[in-house]
Amino acid sequence: MKNIQGNQYVHFLLPLFCLWLGSCTEQVSTDEASSVTSEVETTPVDPKGKVLMAIFSHPDDESTVAPILSKYVREGARVVLVIATDGRLGTNDFSGLEAGDGLVEIRKEELKCSAEKLGVELIQLDYHDQLKAAEGYDGHIPHVRALIKEVHQLVTDIQPDVLITWGPDGGSNHMDHRLVGATVTNVFLSKIWDKPTALFYYGAPSNLIDNEESKILRGVDPKYLMTQIPYEDSDFEAAVVSLACHKSQFQMENLRERMEQRYRSRKVYLRKFVAPTTLSESLFD
Question: What superfamily does domain 2-33+48-272 belong to in CATH?
Fold first, then answer.
């Protein structure tokens, strides 16, 4: 996908880039995936009645964790998907669509379709792609501050047990991904919430990435990705049909085969934010 605002601004979601192109150079084998796993030390908690809130940047970003959104819906959790921006700049070479209000309407409908296929509750906010960065301080900062306050209010109202968002790499280093991930972290750290809440960042294990540059740009060492969520074939199917809703963003030819290649490990990898538990007066303890 390419975003256009004045000059061309390249925008793509690297974890799903191979789906768009129709090929994938970073292949994941079952053996490689198993090398990321570690002995499971805790008994999974029944998710029935729990609340999961996934907060991402653009319509189609939910694809990154779509299988586990389906999984937890199926297992009885309330799953709320929050998408921060309206997708107005998400153009690409194959669709022929122009950036702007017309594309916003198309992507809203695609996102609604995707949420329905996954069975999740959808909240789409109304922030511009790139969060008005091109307008400088006076345009960007009020926009970002409004987003922080709105996310804070959503967390206050919905009281999730779990938050999922982008990590520092943003999945693809995209400015919107990184800002939304930072926003959720900002909100999470702003106070001790009445209801205990856990924060998780999506991550791509470095050892499952063949390209050395990509390892630097978006890889996460497996030792940090100690939350590894398996899912069933039905959840994968839900992810496929939800991704197929985003016709303005992804080519549909051989979509299932490309999804099979990308998600053959049948796990989503996450890093849990862990708060310090001891007070220290030294940086070198």
Answer: LmbE-like (3.40.50.10320)
Q: Strands across the sheet with 121-127, in order?
A: 121-127, 78-85, 51-56, 162-166, 198-202, 267-272, 227-230
The domains of the chain are located at 2-33+48-272
* Residues 215, 179 contacting (CB under 8 angstroms): no
Where is 227: in which H helix or E strand? strand 227-230
Q: What is the pLDDT of residues 80-138, one digit of tens each?
A: 999 999 999 999 888 889 999 999 999 999 999 999 999 999 999 999 999 999 999 99
172: helix, strand or coil: coil
Report the C-alpha gap between 285 and 277 in whole angstroms.
13
Closest CA to 125 of 191, 190, 64, 80: 80
Residue with tokens 């001790």: 192
The angle at the Cα of 60, spanning 56 to 66, to the nearest 5 degrees, equals 75
Instruction: Give 267: exposed, middle or buried? Use CB within 10 Å, 0-12, 13-18, 19+.
Output: buried
How many residues make up the chain in this entry?
285
Please, what is the end-to-end C-alpha distance for the chain in angstroms? Answer: 45
